[in-house]
Amino acid sequence: MSTVVPSPASAATAVPVVAPIVVEGSFLTLHYRLAGPAGEIINTFGGKPATLSLGTGELSPAVEQRLLGLAEGTRTAFDIPAGEAFGPRNADMVQWVARKLLKQLGDPNEQYAVGDVVQFPTPDGLGSYAGAVQQVREGEDGQSVQFDFNHPLAGQPVTFEVQLIGVL
Description:
Helix content: under 10%
Number of helices: 2
Radius of gyration: 25 Å
CATH architecture of the largest domain: Roll
């Protein structure tokens, strides 16, 4: 009786496929959701995925830290303690802005309502930042609008859910 032993050349050899891992400077394609106690702020699931480069300030450092070491294809969620993701709330970031200045910076006929998010140019004109309308008042010196320039999730616990589609 003879035994047939397959030769090494005929044996099936499996080559493990290693998914790319997120490191500093990685270029990512991902779906993500940011939520606080009041609900979602951003959710790309069900829509077009986001693309970004890690370390360029597109995500907060606390969020980026949680992405490091994850493999392409990972879907996970993180609970980030209050104030860690977007810092503490800063009362100095809530400011009254005179209507006169708002007319200079944007549309002079713009009407402001509580909850509106308004974009402002940075002093160098190269970027922008946002403020949420808190109050609108009429005074002796004319109309003014109170804006909160804090991140909407500043000082709050945050849930960050992510699905890594691509890592380069």
